[in-house]
Specification:
The complex is a heterodimer of chains A (546) and B (104). Chain A has 546 residues and is mostly helical. Chain A is built from 16 helices and no strands. Chain A has one domain: Cytochrome c oxidase-like, subunit I domain (Cytochrome C Oxidase, Chain A), CATH 1.20.210. The longest helix of chain A is centred in the first third of the chain and has 37 residues. Chain A is globular, with a radius of gyration of 23 Å. Chain B has one domain. Classes of the chains: A mainly alpha (546), B mainly alpha (104). Chains A and B meet through helix 9 and helix 11 of A and helix 3 of B. The structure holds copper (II) ion. Copper (II) ion binds next to helix 9 of chain A.
Chain lengths: 546, 104
């Protein structure tokens, strides 16, 4: 124990502020990203709590319509552009990808640091937009409202998103080059962890899609500032063109958000079922299929926008097709658990929560892809519930599942397991209480983005707000015990979960260069039938989990 | 083809030729705009624009003289760009097909 305690690692290597702010170490940059995005998560969460309070009553209660509009826009923009999109790739991906590949760092460490600065700068502009009066267009910036009529900080927010987009592109490029060029000897493509595959697919979407939204948002700013007719019919533009360009990126962006989460789930399910992921190559390739198919479905956001019925039919069919690779993943995760020795530790509970909620979120996506049903539920709370099941029920569960799974590796500390499990249950209950009533209220006809509604909807809204409070308690409890673990938690051994994978062969926390000597890979990532793969060198003092 | 090492330097004449071609195509675009070709309007305009983009990518952006991986990257971007246009135009081109009064 004493030998291990004195070991130098990436956390204790240097202590100055500059050694963090100018670090080229992917692990430190990942932690910088973690702090930044958590700040935005808190901000977006506060906005959500405020408008959930407003929605307790059918009439206007604590705020004016204009404040309400600014709050839900702030919630959407911060959560999507400044939390969900960077969440798993820039934090867990940044930290783990090089280690999973047996590399010392990403291919371009300076580009990695630059991406954090660019992201932070974009985030500050977004914050500025909030401080100087907020934005009231919704996170989708639909024209011509955003480009001509809205008298809020559209340009500042648009600029922030535009700049943060470059940070994504830098990260995506870095990942692609790293995965191609820096795999350890013996680490063939089909030995890679599925986490790496899903990040590869995500990076492709980021690189092909992000430039389009950047240009589109820039066009909105140009129309606003110079009154060039692009999207505003009064100036000779076309508002539906904006929707085409916006959703060309923003639908694939849903997969930027969910694919890395799916990678996390694959790692967790394999470890806690003690089995190789069932149908590994198919699961790996289904990530690529989602990445590519995801680009051909954007018109399903535009069924009621005057888009041609024929284009609508094509987009509808293509949207159904995306369900196939997603279902392949779900079935294969379940098949992995079948006959495995399943252990219900905290990360696995998150993974199971993900499975259930993602299935609901995914299947209601099929409702929405059906043209006729879409007309009925378009722009209602049904849509809100659908994407929160995917984004929060799916992605946020995966993010926190991954954070707990790799917490011992990242911090070198163990978290209190029982509190962890209790928190998952609280979050799961709170989540469903918040969003399931929204399916019903939406189906009954409550449109999204309104805070004045008929009295018969009040009961469902009260349930939803109550659920949001439970959810918030869950998140706060997590923050408390993770902070506690950071300071006072027991030391983690090298491999407390007895997981396979290169990241568990190096000490917790890893040394600055990840491995004392370059690893040579002899097995695939999920060789749970090879006992030497998942050994832990814990000494009697260091008790692992379970 | 210079896979590694010093960048390829194209003779000035190439650039002037490319510039001339781009200008000629621009004149053609403007000229064609004076004729109403019906459904072909967009097709002709986009085709000319694509040819121009192709020339710019090949010569000004030096893809012609670059490694295979650059070809692949540029091609992926270009193909995705075409897909975006194709599916967007699938909307605009077919809006009038249904016997409903024109939307807007
Ligand atoms: Cu979509």
């Amino acid at each position: 124990m004493s030998a291990q305690a004195k070991q130098e690692n990436y956390l204790n290597a240097k202590h100055t502020v500059a050694s963090w702010l100018f670090s080229l170490d992917h692990k430190r940059i990942a932690l910088l990203y973690l702090l930044t995005i958590l700040l935005f998560f808190v901000l977006g969460g506060i906005a959500a709590m405020l408008f959930r309070v407003e929605l307790l009553t059918p009439g206007p209660a604590v705020m004016e319509s204009e404040t309400y509009n600014r709050l839900f826009t702030m919630h959407g923009i911060t959560m999507i552009f400044f939390f969900l999109i960077p969440s798993i790739p820039a934090v867990l991906g940044n930290f783990l990808l090089p280690i999973m590949l047996g590399a010392k760092d990403l291919a371009f460490p300076r580009l990695n640091l630059a991406s954090w600065y660019v992201f932070t700068f974009g985030g500050l502009l977004g914050l500025g937009a909030i401080i100087f009066g907020g934005v009231d267009t919704g996170w989708t910036f639909y024209t011509p409202y955003s480009s001509t009529y809205a008298n809020s900080q559209v340009i500042l927010a648009a600029l922030g998103i535009f700049i943060a987009g470059f940070a994504s592109i830098m990260t995506g490029l870095n990942f692609i080059v790293t995965i191609h060029k820096m795999r350890a000897p013996g680490l063939t493509w089909f030995r890679l962890p599925l986490f790496v595959w899903s990040h590869y697919a995500t990076s492709i979407i980021i690189i092909l899609g992000t430039p389009v939204v950047a240009i589109t948002i820039l066009l909105v700013a140009i129309e606003r500032i110079f009154e060039v007719g692009i999207f505003d019919p009064a100036l000779g533009g076309d508002p539906v063109l904006f929707q085409h360009l916006f959703w060309f990126y923003s639908h694939p962006a849903v997969y930027i958000m969910i694919l890395p989460g799916m990678g996390v789930i694959s790692e967790i399910i394999a470890c806690f079922s003690r089995k190789r992921i069932f149908g590994y190559p198919v699961v790996a390739l289904s990530s690529l299929a989602i990445a590519i198919l995801g680009f051909f479905v954007w018109g399903h956001h535009m069924f009621v926008s005057s888009q041609s019925m024929y284009a609508g039919m094509i987009f509808s069919i293509l949207s159904f097709l995306v369900a196939i690779p997603s279902a392949i993943k779900v079935f294969n995760w379940v098949a992995t658990m079948y006959g495995g020795s399943v252990k219900l530790d905290t990360p696995m509970l998150y993974a199971l929560g993900f499975l259930g909620l993602f299935i609901i979120g995914g299947l209601t996506g099929l409702f929405l892809a059906t043209m006729a049903v879409n007309v009925h539920v378009h722009d209602t709370y049904f849509v809100v519930a659908h994407f929160h099941y995917v984004m929060v029920g799916g992605m946020v569960m995966a993010f926190f599942g991954g954070l707990h799974f790799w917490w011992p590796k990242i911090t070198g500390k163990l978290f209190p397991e029982l509190l962890g499990r209790i928190t998952v249950v609280i979050i799961f209950i709170g989540f469903n209480l918040t969003f399931f009533p929204q399916f019903i209220v939406g189906y009954l006809g409550m449109p999204r983005r309104y805070h004045i509604y008929p009295e018969e909807f009040q009961f469902l809204h009260v349930l939803s707000t109550a659920g949001a409070s439970v959810l918030a308690i869950g998140y706060m409890l997590m923050a408390v015990y993770l902070l506690y673990s950071l300071v006072l938690g027991p030391k983690a051994s090298r491999n407390p979960w007895k997981a396979a994978g290169l990241e568990w062969t190096t000490p917790s926390p890893p040394p600055t260069h990840n491995f004392s000597e370059p690893p040579v890979v002899k097995f695939e990532a999920y060789a749970y039938d090879e006992e030497e793969v998942y050994q832990d060198d814990a000494e009697p003092g260091d008790k692992g989990h379970g | 083809m210079s896979e590694h090492g010093q960048p390829h330097i194209a003779p000035l004449k190439t650039y002037l030729n490319v510039f001339a071609a781009l200008m000629a195509l621009t004149v053609l675009t403007v000229g064609v705009a004076y004729f109403d070709l019906g459904a072909m309007n967009i097709l002709v305009a986009v085709t000319i624009a694509c040819i121009k983009a192709y020339i710019v990518i090949l010569y000004f952006m030096h893809v012609k003289y670059s490694a295979r991986i650059i070809w692949l990257t540029a091609a992926a971007g270009f193909i995705w760009f075409v897909l975006m246009f194709a599916l967007t135009l699938a909307d605009y081109a077919t809006r009038g097909w249904l016997p409903f009064p024109e939307a807007w």
